[in-house]
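Thread title: Can someone regenerate the structure for this chain?

I was given the following input by a collaborator and told the matching structure tokens would be attached. They weren't. Posting the sequence so someone can regenerate them.
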Amino acid sequence: MTSFEFKPLSRSFYDSSTVLVAKKLLGKLIIRKLNGRIISGRIVETEAYTSGKHDAASHACKGITERNKVMFGKNGISYVYFTYGMYFMFNVVAKKKTEDAGAVLIRALEPINGIKIMELNRHVKNKLNITNGPGKLTKALVIDKKFNGIDMTKKGKLYITNFERRREEISASTRVGISSAMDKKWRFYLKGNKFVSKKD
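Best answer:
Regenerated them for you:
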């Protein structure tokens, strides 16, 4: 890795349409500092969740609450929540000025550094199965509710950086596990990538 990869994405990167940022995050690198080690994964799948009036599947659809208030705040801030009584979900707030709320769910990663550590955290030995889902990747990177509301534009224990560019096609589909707003194809992934949660 070269030094530029360790510079967090700026806040202006997230100051855009949630849907556009969900696409732009593909190929970026998540850096997680854990017990003096750096583990990382390349983002290969995301989902966009926008303001309530435009997105019935979003946590923001019924207005601001104690749980979702981060989505209504400053861009570039992490939004981590617990779901199904089992999994933490890692999102980053991103929206344009005309939107009242918005966040991008990170759904899958391609493991890059610290793969053995991630395998231990997940209790698996199959590289393809370490981070190919939103609940899996948070367990692999040890991301929990303590990471809710941190500034991702600053270096710390968790942030997102640029990474090597590759020529890859972006595919879109309906978001996973929702029962409303099924018309919106706001799940984005790198076509043919073997680390996405749902294959082509």
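The beta strands are 29-34, 37-49, 78-83, 87-93, 103-113, 158-161, 170-173, 187-190.
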